[in-house]
Amino acid sequence: MNTIIAPSLLSCDFSRINEESEMLNNSSAEWFHLDVMDGVFVPNISFGLPIIEAFRKCTNKVLDVHAMVANPDPYISDFKKAGADNFTVHYEACTHLHRTISAIKSEGMKAGVAINPHTPVHLLNDIIKDLDLVCIMSVNPGFGGQKFIENTYQKVRELKALIDKNNSSCIIEIDGGVNLENARKLIEAGATALVAGSTVFKSENPTETIDKLRG
Question: Is 175 one of the annotated active-site residues of the chain?
Fold first, then answer.
């Protein structure tokens, strides 16, 4: 499977949405990654539905929405209407995870689950067959530009083994601190999608950086 590159729009220049979108549209990146933060589940507030709608107007590429929110269920259909293709919720935020995943799929979106650095992979054993994507947080969620947590490689290998054991085609996405130094090791461990914010948008040549992340 080819590695999916998903630049994180949290690091883009929001005064230049059209230009940033055009750059990504002309790049080899497959997804636009959009982090929605509520200031409750994580100690930060980012953006909501209007920004998703704005990027939907700017691209035909996949909108990969990561909901770092305390109670995502009431908003699932709203994010579908706004243009989300993938909708990822946090394991730690969902009391009835299977019901939440079923609701996402019923809206026609790909369903993902994110796990924080302290959350072990084996907790996904009973839900893995229902998932299209698992997002391993390689930093503590809430802020961009954090240092990559080295234990992520082991979690990727464990998740890959769980996916293979269940004959799943689930995507393994890594979010946080991904750069040109660790991208290759993540891919070798089993990652199939890489989220990169500062590494892409703060580089001199973002489209070239996207190609280099893919290896």
Answer: yes
